[in-house]
Amino acid sequence: MTSATAPQWPELRPLSLRLVILSRSRSRSITSHRLFPGATLLVPESEAESYRHTGLGIETIPDEVAGISAVRNWVLRRFTEDAIVMLDDDISACVCMVSLRCRRLRPAVGTGGARVQFVGVRSGFSDGAADSLRDGDLSLMLTVSLCL
Questions:
Q1: Cα(46)–Cα(10) distance, rounded to whole angstroms?
Q2: pTM
Q3: Is position 53 within any domain?
């Protein structure tokens, strides 16, 4: 049987993914939009206009939906993608610590884009990785494992 006639494995189909930045009352201090320019920004209806400067696609949530648990449940009911990643609004860098070299991704100054900075060689927690965790500007550390 050739790959063209082989049955499709549902486990191997492409997954749809949506990144959602959750924010409320922080339109002046939001930073995550610089690292995730393709994300959807979710804000209360009454605050949508104050977030237009981010350049992201904005979805609104009713003002009555308050509290992080209620907001997260609303997101899960509203969006239909296979995978939904909910992000804080104050992420300023991401650090990858699953390869031989630790990398930090942060927005490039003045360009609005992102750049990768190598911060050390990984052997357990390398000095570079430990330094990146002490910097104080790290809100999220992503570790991704893929099991096939």
A1: 41
A2: 0.65
A3: yes
